[in-house]
Amino acid sequence: MTTTLITGANKGLGFESARRLVAAGHTVYIGARDAERGRRAAEQIGARSVQLDVTDDASVQAAAKTIGADGGLDVLVNNAGIEVRAEDNSIPTAGDTTADEMRTVFDTNVFGVVRVTHAFLPLLQRSAAPVVVNVSSGLASLTGLSSPDSPAHFYQAVAYPSSKTAVNMITVQYAKAFPDMRINAVEPGFTATDLNGRTGTQTVEEGAEIIVRMAQLGPDGPTGGYFDVNGPLPW
Known about the structure:
Elements: E1 3-6, H1 12-23, E2 27-32, H2 35-45, E3 48-51, H3 57-70, E4 75-78, H4 99-109, H5 111-124, E5 131-135, H6 142-146, H7 159-177, E6 182-186, H8 204-215, E7 226-228, E8 231-232
Parallel strand pairs: 1-2, 1-4, 2-3, 4-5, 5-6, 6-7
Antiparallel strand pairs: 7-8
Helix pairs in contact: 1-8, 3-5, 4-7
């Protein structure tokens, strides 16, 4: 039995990925900041729930202890993420972005990935086929955002894309450090979720496809890569 933890999984892409992996036979833990929301989400799909706030060391350590006591972990999906928006739901441009806004986004999107991965590494290292999936973004691509021909070029904000570019680098470095694990970054596509105020053009079913696929990699699968549903993406 494969045991999987997905952070930020009580809604959106995390919840849909959890639903699909439960259906595929995984024992899935829904990690949620709000324990009650996590419990309700888990009940809907036959998953387990664990309180987990990726910005809080004590919460992450407690979650690792709980899952370790239950038997261990094979797959970690670092899905929890935020995007800072103004009161009118607009995204601050480069000129308006403050260091505090950057810090808030990085605390969840970057430091959260490191905090959770670090805490669960001992459990993953005991797995016969450990997998880590870091949910990145097409906006993480330096190639995409710097090319006038890319659809992502229009995006003017600083905090969110730079945080996801950092996630890509973290992915590369962890993959080199732990060659026995399959560690990859994925781009779900522009999916309609609370993160973007439901402005996305894809459904969560479409967006979860690459997350679910990479969560089920075998030991001979790729590692240290950056993928969407169609294959590798330019860094």
